[in-house]
Amino acid sequence: MIHLVGAGPGDPELLTVKAHRLLRGAGIVLHDDLVPDEILALAGPQAQIVNVGKRCGAKRTTQAEINSRMIESSRGGLDVVRLHSGDPAIFGRLGEELDALEAAGVPFEIVPGITAGVASAAALGITLTDRRKSSRVIIASGHHASKSGLHDKTDWKDLAREDATLIVYMPGSDFSALRDELLAADLDSQIPAIIVSHATTPRQQFRCATLGELHKLPRMEAPAVLLIGWPLERAYQKLSAEDLFLMLAEADLIFSAP
Amino acid sequence: MIHLVGAGPGDPELLTVKAHRLLRGAGIVLHDDLVPDEILALAGPQAQIVNVGKRCGAKRTTQAEINSRMIESSRGGLDVVRLHSGDPAIFGRLGEELDALEAAGVPFEIVPGITAGVASAAALGITLTDRRKSSRVIIASGHHASKSGLHDKTDWKDLAREDATLIVYMPGSDFSALRDELLAADLDSQIPAIIVSHATTPRQQFRCATLGELHKLPRMEAPAVLLIGWPLERAYQKLSAEDLFLMLAEADLIFSAP
Known about the structure:
The structure is a homodimer. The first copy, chain A, is of the alpha/beta class. In chain A, 28% of the residues lie in helices and 21% in strands. Chain A has a five-stranded parallel sheet with strand order 3-2-6-1-7, sandwiched between helices. A five-stranded mixed sheet of chain A has the order 8-9-12-10-11, covered by helices on one side. In chain A, strands 4-5 form a two-stranded antiparallel sheet. In chain A, strand 4 and strand 5 form a beta hairpin. The first copy, chain A, is elongated. Chains A and B meet through helix 1, helix 4, strand 7, helix 5 and strand 8 of A and helix 1, helix 4, strand 7, helix 5 and strand 8 of B. Strand 8 of chain A pairs antiparallel with strand 8 (136-141) of chain B.
């Protein structure tokens, strides 16, 4: 039995109890690049820890290599944990892994994890749906797999709804097209947006903007997610007040005793 | 500090490590109706366990009562865990609770949980996104809050995309409008759909259909979610083969020795 396990957003306490148990008993852990050391340290002393991460196209390990490593380890009698960051079913390569395991006739189990978008909302102290403001959540990716041809850079507007919260994984650094298309689809330019990097870890960082100023958001270190929608307002107000405070502090306008 | 905690889909092992810790130390646990006893049993002996659930409009406890109970318990010195089924930020009343806590000046923390849609995908052994088939996940609710006016029964077609996986929470029992609108928006009638009830618990049940036959799906006991999209194909094929097997067995066409 191979366990395809979600490692959650980064905080080791946001692993599920089951993921924690499987990690402790694993013979081999094949993990994504973005899984932090604090989580890998939870594996037992018997475990081989193997980074099979891919980043920005620089493939350290090919998907075929990951698949055969899983299958060979399992056939060799090891308890295999394939550790995906976040949840395995959301923007991982789980589809390819399931195809390979089924073709090889190796039994598997998927253990869900807390996905980055949901973790970021919790870290921001907001809700994603609100019966007064947002009745839907749309999870999309800013990273376009060019070979798939599934969607191109011009179809954001399909997803433009005042009553939805949009979560963009791998948002990249250029938010102008997203901004322009959402505005062209008549979304309110005052809708708050927040980008969250390293949610739930000590390196967690936020930056906020309105939709109208989305293009001014900085690139943030991966893993990052971009959230857009009215339910963010509560966090947006606090963060923009903090930004102002920091700006004034940097400009030496406060903290300056006469 | 009040902890607004996700209890996950039902399996106690799918609690986060943090939720588990907070539950053990809680002075009072205010929980949704759908949180199973096995999870409530994890609270320490000191904890008061209070069901503040609402179901199908029959309000056992009003939202205002939940809010004041949280605030009073916290002011009375109790460690308060407000335990939401699934994730607190997805189709709970977290928005109202945050408003009340902020107005009262009571500090809070949100602890995310595994939401039912993600848990159902794991239970089905499928992925929700697949770079070859589905690049988006849309989370919507089949339960229409009539007072909110946010969306009516005729806007499903906005969400009809061949390359998205649709997850409908509280799907109810009448799937004809959903079927008709998705078909009217040119979605393929062969797209697989699966309804999952009590995901990840011993009472877990699945039923499957194609989009074209969606109206034939039975009502399933809450908590239930309905998933629609090409990535379900892998599970659909297995389940429909099992259905056929059961049907033949019931018709005494197999297992009948001469």
